[in-house]
Design goal:
This protein has 258 residues and is of the alpha+beta class. It has 5 helices and 10 strands, in the order H-H-H-H-H-E-E-E-E-E-E-E-E-E-E. The strands form 3 sheets. Strands 1, 2, 3, 4 and 8 form a 5-stranded antiparallel β-sheet that branches. Strand 3 and strand 4 form a beta hairpin. The protein is rod-shaped and about 150 Å long. 14% of the residues are buried. The model has no long low-confidence stretch (mean pLDDT 80).
Length: 258
Amino acid sequence: MSHIRAQRDASPQPTLIDVMIVLVICSAVTIFVFWIASRFMRLELFDQLPNWVVGTYGYFTALGTGSAGLGAAVIHSLVRRDPAPDYVRLIGVCLIAIFLMIVAIILIDRYLVVKSSNDVAAASHPPASPASAPAAPPAATIKPIVRNFSHPNVTLNGTMREIGVSVIDSGNGKGTYNISFKWTGSGGTQHGSQNATVTFKGAGNASLQSVVIPINRDHCYYDGGNLQSKNGDFVVDPGLVTGIEVTLSEVSGRMGVC
């Protein structure tokens, strides 16, 4: 071991020119090896590079670079006066260093870069959550059922005419009603207070719900009468309604003749 160290210490130290010569020859060998490998492996990677890059490798480039390096080494050895260094050892060390760098680049690209790319892809595309249960179909819309009832005229100190009642069944036991009629005091009286009562009848003439409507007696309302109406909600199932009954109350208060 000490003999090898002593021999290495005794060998001439390379100058800057020696280093440049070794780098030129080493680069030429590396370029030539990669050029041959790309041709045998039929790789098109190098052919797809820009022209200014493609021109730096190839057979003639490697040959020219190697020849320049060898020529510079020969000329330098002829003109130098001190002992020349071991070019073979220096070129071997340079080639080993280049190939170790190439192996390191391959390992980094295969195990680190690929793993990082997979992690980024997994982060940007998280696993899909389990499929949720399908939403329940929307409840079927129930179309309201409308039934119309009419009633004969009712007279008491005036007359209720054109009495009509609409029963709107919305389903689920709910619904609304619309009551309309015309009032005329012709042949009767005006002023005072009077109410009309509309009773919804069910099976067996049973009274289901009653609606009280104040009569507008401000005038006599000739020429067909004064139109009045009233809307409201059922408190019973409108589907049970089978008919209507209309009555008028007695007039209270001061009246006038029409």
